[in-house]
Design a protein that fits this description.
The protein is built from ten helices and nine strands. By secondary structure, it is of the alpha/beta class. The chain is globular.
Length: about 260
């Protein structure tokens, strides 16, 4: 029975509060995907911060994940992540930019096989009647990155998908950005030719919780995002796309990838 429970839990990406508590009883690590300053204002008890901004190759608009494995190892160990225990990532859901999805994707790129996301984020935790804390969390993790290149798309892979159609390109930005708007002052607007448009926030309800599975499948199908070939998610820096990647993993898509450079 215990083995069956573990298997089912590992196959599910988005967990509700009760499922998260069950994993915490098994020794799961809690990773807060917000920046450290926001984490210090109030966080789930036992959580540690890991921001995607601190794991980039460079600054400014660069969304590429660093290849410095020592840096990645240290960041996740400081939040208590271990190779042999589950991880639940917490974010701000609808109030954020999908940072929890980006950190979930990062853990999968680094070979962690038991990562999850708290569905609805901090809001769901507070709605369940549980409090936040400002108590620091000690480290104590033991994590060994094992790079999984198949979960990351580079520019060459995206260009091949664009020209050959051997993968679906899913643009997770707003419809306005897809049509050419540059709200963050991008050098140019528009989208990659052939990309499909579906805003990542259309995947969640007003409380930031994932829509029912059948609704998600219908939306993806209507947008031309198929489950019979690889799907490459993209945005402007691989964060919103990271959340979309996590949704594809939840739905059992065979080979999703995140174009983190985007």
């Amino acid at each position: 029975m215990w083995l069956l429970l573990v298997h089912l839990t590992q196959a599910k990406v988005f967990l509700d509060v009760e499922e998260t508590l069950a994993l915490l009883e098994r020794g799961a690590a809690l990773v807060d995907a917000r920046i450290a300053a926001t984490w210090r204002d109030g966080h789930l008890p036992g959580s540690g911060p890991v921001s995607w901004l601190d794991l980039r190759q460079g600054l400014l608009r660069n969304g590429w994940l660093t290849r410095d494995e020592d840096r990645l190892e240290a960041a996740f160990e400081s939040a208590g992540v271990r190779d042999d225990a589950p991880v639940v990532v917490v974010g701000e859901a609808r109030e954020g930019w999908g940072e929890e999805g980006r950190i979930f994707w990062t853990l999968e790129v680094l070979g962690h096989e038991d990562a999850h996301i708290l569905d609805g984020g901090l809001g769901a935790w507070k709605r369940s009647g549980r409090d936040l804390t400002q108590t620091p969390r000690p480290g104590g993790g033991s994590f060994t990155p094992r790079w999984q290149a198949a979960r990351q798309a580079d520019t060459e892979r995206v260009e091949r998908a664009r020209s050959s159609g051997d993968a679906t390109l899913w643009d997770t930005r707003t419809r306005e950005e897809f049509a050419g708007a540059t709200p963050a002052g991008e050098a140019r607007g528009g989208h990659i030719p052939g990309a499909r448009s579906l805003w990542w926030k259309d995947l969640i309800d007003e409380q930031g919780e994932l829509l029912p599975r059948e609704d998600l499948s219908g939306m993806l199908e209507a947008a031309g995002i198929r489950d019979d070939q690889p799907v490459i998610t993209l945005c402007s820096g691989g964060v919103r796309a990271g959340f979309a990647y996590a949704v594809l993993r939840e739905l059992g898509y065979k080979q999703p990838m995140n174009y983190d450079g985007s």
